């Protein structure tokens, strides 16, 4: 009987394991990892702004210890790379469900003290919201 139970348990473990560990759930992706910039949003002040595709290699890597690294500036809205940026990030449980001022990045290299870039995940994309007079932001997808 013990042998049969062991084989059933092994069969269940084998069936439950799959190659899907590398797949990203578009509704609830893990923040840790590397994200690539795909679109940028800017609004001229009349509410007509929209996300537009960008040609950029800018990326952000989130580490498990609350540190992030980017190959581009995060103190302002730019698609350029070449200026390495790092800092800390804070995440709470509303990352997927809604925008929250409790989810933010704090780049170390900014001229403004306690500068924050807010973020959330929407439909599998990482959305960064920069402090702008008019609406602006960036959209990233997980690599």
TrEMBL record:
Species for this entry: Euzebyella marina
Annotated PROSITE patterns: PROKAR_LIPOPROTEIN
Lineage of producing organism: Bacteria, Pseudomonadati, Bacteroidota, Flavobacteriia, Flavobacteriales
Name of this chain's protein: Lipocalin-like domain-containing protein
